[in-house]
Every structure is written in C-alpha cells, then in structure tokens.
Amino acid sequence: MNPLKHVDIHMENLISDLQTLIRQPSVSAKNEGIEECAKLVQKLLKKSGVKSEILRLKKGVAPIVYGEIKSKQNPNKTLMFYNHYDVQPAEPFDLWDSPPFSGTRKGNKIFGRGATDDKGELITRIKAVEACLKTTGDVPCNIKFVIEGEEETGSAHIEDYLKKYKKKFSCDGVIWEFGYVDAKNRPIIGLGMKGLLFVELSVKESIRDAHSSLAVLIKNPAWRLIEAVHTLRDSNGKILIKDWYKEVTPFSKQDLKLIKNELFDENDFKKEFGIKSFVGNKKGIDAKKALVGGATCNVAGFVSGYTGDGAKTVLPSESLVKIDFRLVPKMDPKKQVMRLKKHLKSKGFSDIGIKVFHGEAAARTNSSDPFVSQVKDAANKSFGKSILNVSNAGTGPMYPFVDILKAPCISIGSTYMFSRIHSPNEFARIDLLKKMTKCACLIMENFGKH
Ligand SMILES: [Zn+2]
Asked: From the CA of 337, how far away is ligand 1's center (Å)?
C-alpha cells in the first residue's frame, strides 16, 4: 500500500512560505541577513511539525538550522535532507525585472534570488514532511534536516559541523540540496560529484623585468613554467604524474550500462561551444565516460610578461599558472598534492613554487545501492520519468557526508536547468515544486519500507 501516493500538497501554502523565505535576504558573501534567515527557517520547520534548533560552531561562522522528527512506525531508519538557506548576491540589480527579494509570482513562476537555489528546493522537503504528517499522522522514517548558511561561499565549515555533530547527524541516507530537471521535465538523479584540486604554480627568476635582449643570459620564467606544465599531461588528456590514477577503480557493469544510456548529444554539444573535436578525439561512450568519471588537469589561467596592445620587448621576472585538477573517486587530494610535488622535483623543477587553494575529494554512491532504486521509483511516480546520472562532471561538498556519516547520498530536486540560478531573474517553476514535494514524500515512504 502507498498511503502517500495520493498525498495532498497545499501549493498555496508552499508558495507563500517560499515567498516569505525569498523576502528575507540571506547573502552569505556579504553576511547579510544570515542570522535572520536561520531563525526564519527554524520557524518554518516548527510550523510544519519538525522539532528544530540552531547549531553553532564558533563566532563568525554561519549557524546550521537543524530539524528532526522521529517516526513512530519506523524509528530505526533515518533519512537526512541537506540544504542551504544562504543565497548568491543578487547584483546586478538593474537586470532584474522584479526586485530580487520580492518573490514575485507570474503564471507558473516565482521569481527571486534563491527561488530555486536553494530556498525552493528546501521548501519542497519541508512541505513533504508536513504533508506526510497531515496525511498519516506520522513520517515513514526518522527525518533530519541539516540546513547550512555558507554553501554559496564554498561550504567552508560543513566538514567541521559534520565532525562536531556526527552523532546527532547520523543517518542511513542523504538527499542532496538540489537536482536538475531537464528541458523534457525529467529529473536527473545524481549519484556523485567529482573532486577538485586547485593549485597555483609559479616561477620567480629575477628581481625585476629586463630588456629582452638579455634573454641570451637570463632565463625566462615563462618558458620555465611552460616546460614544467608540459610534463603534467599528454595531448590526449592523460595525466603523466606518477601514480596519479593508482587507486582509481574501473566503472562497474551497472555504471557502464547507465553511462551508455546517458543522454548526451555529441554534435549539439560541439555546436554549442563551436568546437570540432574532443580531447583525444573521444567519441561515443568514451566521451560520456569522460564526463562522468574522467580526471582532468586543466590550465585555468597563465600569466607572465606583457600581453597588452602592440609590442613590448620584455623579459618577465616571474610567471604564474593556475591549474585545476578534477578528481574522481578514491583520489585523495592530499596524496595527489604530494604526487604533484614529487613529480616536479623528479623532473628537475624544484624551483617551482606550489600553492594549494582547494582540495576536495570526489563522492559517488554505488548505483546498485537500494537507496538508488527507492529514489528512482519515487521520481518516476511523481515526474513520470527520470534519468540516473552516475556522477556530475562538477564538484560539490558531498564527500564529507559520505565519508563522515557513512551514508549514501543522492541528489534530486526541482531545479529547472534554465531557471537562471546565480543570475538575474532566477525563478522556480510551480509545477516542478509540486512534483518534487510529492517525490520527496514517496522517497521517504520507499526509504522507510526497506
Ligand atoms: Zn547556488
């Protein structure tokens, strides 16, 4: 029996609560309205029947709003909803058709900063729990809410919070803060995120720039860096640092099946970017595999010398390159940094400075985990169809959840892929909010049953 199959979602309540949330600015980058928004979220949780408290780490760190409701029928299984109440800055204001913190409703859309990212997603989770309680007087499993306030500035303290409140946050599965819905209204169920290692390499050769006639005697730091960077990867994209792929395991049969079915139109993609071929001339399944599970060594920026108008014969004194490496599961960022350092030293580049800006491991939930089919079933019932994605090509702070809480983590949501998140005129689609709220009900039900 599915008591929640015909659950009643009160959309007018949902919309007005979402508007209330949007009207409270909460820009983490500017520390604007963070405390106020945390309190508002706590109030909304309580109003929906969820016990809630504000958790703190230390001064200057945005609080986490924590919510919990115990299941009477099934107190041994716990599902967590991870979301964030902070938003991106709304600038440039003049490009908004309605004020960014107004929550203006037009037809099927609610406009405002955070309408989708992440206040829209958050409200679907809260209203799902509320609908569940109203329909059945209980929740199908214990529910925990972890709602942070620093996601848009990089979730700098989420790992510390998870460590500090490990026991409080313990759970058997996590629903990630968002999920895309494609142009054909299919939610994309994401099972993972790649990791990221961001470094800066630099060479300082002389104490000042020199006349380029002196290039016969003074070494050029740009050449030096080019030579070093050249040793990091081959022209097919393979990273040449010793043991870089050592711990990486191949895709499972099940993963390969999903990757094969992944909707990716090579020609559309090439047209979109105006390119003729892919790295290493990848085609078909190899291009899909690279998106889902390929590691990269990408030159994000390279500066040295003069790049202004006209000519200037100068020999620069220093050079600098910023490189981002996308990491795949089992690559430990700390270990990879050591390998990079060792590589440069062994190739004779010990004069090159290395600065590490960011290191984050990849996370991926096993596609044969029962949680995956529970979410998939819920999505199919609510949206009519859905797509499983083994891993997003991008990066998010999923690893600490999987690592510290030892729980599978899945992303699904109501974020229409063209909903202008992080841009002016961000909006949420009311039809998708409704479908996602129902989907969250069914996820809880499926999760509680097994
Ligand atoms: Zn965002």
From this structure: 28
pLDDT band for position 2 (cuts 50, 70, 90): low
Cα angle 420, 425, 427; round to 5: 65
Q: What span, in angstroms and rounded, lies between the C-alpha atoms of 100 and 307?
A: 39
Ordered by start, the domain boundaries in the chain are: 11-191+365-449, 194-248+295-360
pLDDT bracket for residue 446 (50, 70, 90): very high
Q: What are the Cα distances from residue 151, in Å, to 31, 55, 117, 372, 445?
A: 12, 16, 10, 25, 28
Rg (CA), the chain: 24
How far apart, in whole angstroms, are the C-alpha atoms of residue 404 and residue 294? 25
Q: Is the pLDDT of residue 381 over 70?
A: yes
- Ligand 1 centre to CA of 61 (Å) is 18
Beta bridge partner(s), residue 196:
326, 360
The alpha carbon of 134 and the centre of ligand 1 are apart by a number of angstroms equal to: 31
Q: How far is the CA of 416 from the centre of ligand 1 (A)?
A: 13
At residue 289 the predicted structure's pLDDT band, cuts being 50, 70 and 90, is very high
Tokens 């949780």 correspond to 45
Q: Predicted confidence band at 46 (pLDDT cuts at 50, 70, 90)?
A: very high
CA 139 to chain centre: 28
CATH ID of 194-248+295-360, from 3.60.70.12, 3.30.70.360, 3.30.420.40, 3.40.50.970: 3.30.70.360
What is the 190 CA–ligand 1 centroid distance (Å)? Answer: 16
Please name the CATH architecture into which domain 11-191+365-449 falls: 3-Layer(aba) Sandwich (3.40)
Tokens at 344, concatenated: 């440069």
Phi, psi of 316 (to 5 degrees): -65, 155
CA of 276 to the centre of ligand 1 (A): 31
- pLDDT score at 257: 94
Residue 394 Cα, ligand 1 centroid: separation in angstroms? Answer: 13
